[in-house]
């Protein structure tokens, strides 16, 4: 079993929809949680970063962490065609020397 | 701002050939990493260097070697390429202890035939 599970999709939504992306994990030692966005043929770029449980909002994006359920989410409001990309969750264990462990990534397509 | 620069961008190798992937960062980061990305597998850590002068194995180190040449540069070497090493390779860097905030390069697409 992988440490971090993420549904690969693809997920196709109409422009303006609310998108929910999720990951589950098995190791309770994970403390830092991130979402990366990766456009086709590009490197991943950091989108959201949260520490421990709670919510964090940045514009149209909201990241949620529920450590009791070992579950993290990324919500995208008013989705745009420019949001079409692969979204990767990633996390770091406490004392993990900053080593990111990634989910498989979910491919999102937002159509006009 | 260059960030993380990887060379080459594309490469085709024959089985058994060797090559070195180059990576350089200009952000004065202490830590550097090599990942490979395969369909449905996400990014998997090959090797990392927590600081200049140190290197450690990641999740999938077999068939690879690394060199942290100085604070800026971290290279990945394939001594005898195999078709299973066909992948997209990403280099990344971060400031140690930040708990995140990796900056990735644009990747090297490697095909081993």
Shape of chain A: globular
Count of runs of 4 or more consecutive helical residues of chain B? 0
Instruction: Estimate percent helicity of chain A.
Output: under 10%
- The rounded distance between the terminal residues' Cα atoms of chain B is 35 Å
Largest interface: A-B, 26 and 29 residues
Order of helices and strands of chain B: EEEEEEEEEEE
Mean pLDDT across the residues of chain B is: 92
Helix count, DSSP H or I runs of 4 or more residues of chain A: 0
Give the termini separation of chain A: 37 Å
Which sheet architecture does the biggest sheet of chain A show?
6 strands, mixed
The major pleated sheet of chain B works out as:
7 strands, mixed
Which features does this protein show?
heterodimer; A: mainly beta; six-stranded mixed beta sheet; five-stranded antiparallel beta sheet; 57% strand; B: 113 residues; mainly beta; seven-stranded mixed beta sheet; four-stranded antiparallel beta sheet; globular
Summarize the structure.
The complex is a heterodimer of chains A (112) and B (113). With 112 residues, chain A is mainly beta.
Secondary-structure blueprint:
The complex is a heterodimer of chains A (about 110) and B (about 110).
Chain A: E1 4-6, E2 11-14, E3 19-25, E4 30-38, E5 45-51, E6 54-58, E7 61-66, E8 71-76, E9 85-93, E10 101-102, E11 106-111
Chain B: E1 4-7, E2 10-13, E3 19-25, E4 31-38, E5 42-49, E6 56-57, E7 64-68, E8 74-78, E9 87-94, E10 103-104, E11 108-112
Parallel strand pairs in B: 2-11
Antiparallel strand pairs in B: 1-3, 3-8, 4-5, 4-9, 5-6, 7-8, 9-10, 9-11
Tell me about this structure.
- The complex is a heterodimer of chains A (112) and B (113).
- With 112 residues, chain A is mainly β.
- Chain A contains no helices and 11 strands.
- Chain A has strands at 4-6, 11-14, 19-25, 30-38, 45-51, 54-58, 61-66, 71-76, 85-93, 101-102, 106-111.
- In chain A, a hairpin with a 4-residue loop joins strand 7 and strand 8.
- Chain A starts with a strand and ends with a strand.
- Chain B has 113 residues and is mainly β.
- Chain B is globular, with a radius of gyration of 13 Å.
- The model of chain B has no long low-confidence stretch (mean pLDDT 92).
- In chain B, the strands form 2 sheets. In chain B, strands 2, 4, 5, 6, 9, 10 and 11 form a 7-stranded mixed β-sheet that branches.
- Chain A binds chain B through residues 4, 6, 8, 31-32, 34, 41-46, 49, 51, 88, 90, 92, 97-105, and chain B through 4, 31, 33, 35, 40-45, 48, 50, 56, 58, 90, 92, 94, 96-107.
């Amino acid at each position: 079993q992988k440490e971090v599970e993420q549904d690969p999709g693809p997920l196709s939504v109409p422009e303006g929809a609310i998108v929910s992306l999720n990951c589950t994990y098995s190791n309770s030692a994970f403390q830092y949680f991130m979402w990366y966005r990766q456009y086709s043929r590009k490197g991943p770029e950091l989108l959201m970063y949260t520490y421990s449980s709670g919510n964090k909002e940045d514009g149209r994006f909201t990241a949620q962490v529920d450590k009791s359920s070992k579950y993290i989410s990324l919500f995208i409001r008013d989705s745009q065609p420019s949001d079409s990309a692969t979204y990767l969750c990633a996390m770091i264990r406490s004392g993990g020397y900053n080593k990111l462990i990634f989910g498989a990534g979910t491919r999102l397509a937002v159509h006009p | 701002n260059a960030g993380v620069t990887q060379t080459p961008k594309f490469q085709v190798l024959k089985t058994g050939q060797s090559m070195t992937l180059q990576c350089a960062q200009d952000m004065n980061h202490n830590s550097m990493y090599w990942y490979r990305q395969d369909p449905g597998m996400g990014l998997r850590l090959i090797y990392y260097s927590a600081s200049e002068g140190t290197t450690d194995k990641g999740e999938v180190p077999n068939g690879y070697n690394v060199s942290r040449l100085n604070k800026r540069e971290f290279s990945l070497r394939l001594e005898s390429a195999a078709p299973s090493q066909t992948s997209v390779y990403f280099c990344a860097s971060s400031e140690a202890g930040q708990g995140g905030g990796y900056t990735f390069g644009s990747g090297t697409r490697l095909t081993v035939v």
